[in-house]
């Protein structure tokens, strides 16, 4: 395929917006005692399970959830980032997941107490 054919194909391709919100959740699991730590070591798996089961059971088909690798804030986890808002959350218990789903995903209101503030 020539460069002009690639450009033409790119021009014709439109990505439909599938989701109102799309959550990416770090599921990185490093060995115990690793100096960087990991979201897995900090208990992300039960939160991931709760999130995916809640989204599915409530049939929230406009919410995407994707397992992600390391976000680089290993000792701060578990964490997720929600787009298109770019909100970074640090849920630590199942009730936090319920609150994110109810408030952010269903009502469009971020959960301030769970937001991770990124310092520049």
TrEMBL record:
It comes from Bradyrhizobium oligotrophicum S58. This is Ferredoxin, 2Fe-2S. InterPro entries: Thioredoxin-like_sf. It comes from the Bacteria.
């Amino acid at each position: 395929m020539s460069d002009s054919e690639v450009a033409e194909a790119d021009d014709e391709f439109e990505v439909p917006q599938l989701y109102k919100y799309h959550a990416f959740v770090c599921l990185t699991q490093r060995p115990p005692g690793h100096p960087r730590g990991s979201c897995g070591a900090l208990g992300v798996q039960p939160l991931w399970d709760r999130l995916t089961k809640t989204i599915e059971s409530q049939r929230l088909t406009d919410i995407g959830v994707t397992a992600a690798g390391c976000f680089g804030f290993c000792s701060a986890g578990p964490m997720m980032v929600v787009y298109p808002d770019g909100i970074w959350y640090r849920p630590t218990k199942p009730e936090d997941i319920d609150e994110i789903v109810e408030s952010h995903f269903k009502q469009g209101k971020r959960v301030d107490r769970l937001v991770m503030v990124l310092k520049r």
